[in-house]
TrEMBL record:
Signal peptide: none annotated. This is VOC domain-containing protein. The lineage of its organism: Eukaryota, Sar, Stramenopiles, Ochrophyta, Eustigmatophyceae. It comes from the Eukaryota. Residues 18-145 form the VOC domain. Pfam families: Glyoxalase. Transmembrane segments: none annotated. Gene3D superfamilies: 2,3-Dihydroxybiphenyl 1,2-Dioxygenase, domain 1.
Length: 170
């Protein structure tokens, strides 16, 4: 059988010690850097002198590598398809997610930066989310909480304007 469909071997921990970084292919790494730094609050960090152009950013415990596309025409087509699909399929799409202590302030700042977003919320789960696009059509979620491990709801509505509870910072 194909390796992806082969029966799973008995559970054995994989020898990974930590998460290192997330990488995004972008059309214009300077525009994307300005978005991630100027809107979301990342900072630029030193990057080795690789052959391809790009920048490394850091924020909120995440290293984010933005790499200039070698195939901008294909990337532009992909961006259009992603935005069209995501417009219809939010919030069930590929995305990276952050937790905020103040979702209302996030929404206010996104409006100030003229960033398009959609807001979703459920009083049943106490989870409220904002989804937005970066300049390349990559989806970002900013949520008021994350359920504690093993749970499916947040203990209370947090982050609508006040501090987040310790359980929501997973």
């Amino acid at each position: 059988p194909h390796p992806a469909t082969a029966p799973a071997a008995p559970y054995r921990p994989f020898p990974i010690v930590s998460f290192n970084h997330m990488s995004k292919e972008v059309l214009d790494y300077e525009l994307s850097r300005d978005f991630y730094c100027g809107v979301l609050g990342f900072i630029e960090i030193p990057r080795p002198a690789f052959e391809n152009e790009g920048v490394w950013l850091y924020g909120f415990g995440l290293s984010l590598h933005l790499i200039k596309s070698r195939y901008p025409e294909k990337r532009l087509l992909l961006k259009g398809r992603r935005i069209e699909h995501f417009e219809e399929a939010l919030p069930n799409v590929d995305h990276m997610a952050f937790i905020t202590s103040n979702l209302n302030e996030v929404e206010k700042q996104l409006r100030e930066h003229n960033v398009f977003y959609k807001r979703f919320g459920s009083h049943k789960t106490n989870i409220h989310q904002i989804f937005l696009f970066d300049p390349d059509g990559n989806v970002i979620e900013i949520s008021n909480c994350a359920p504690p491990v093993g749970e499916t709801t947040c203990p209370r509505v947090v982050g609508m304007g006040g501090p987040a509870s310790p359980q929501s910072r997973l």
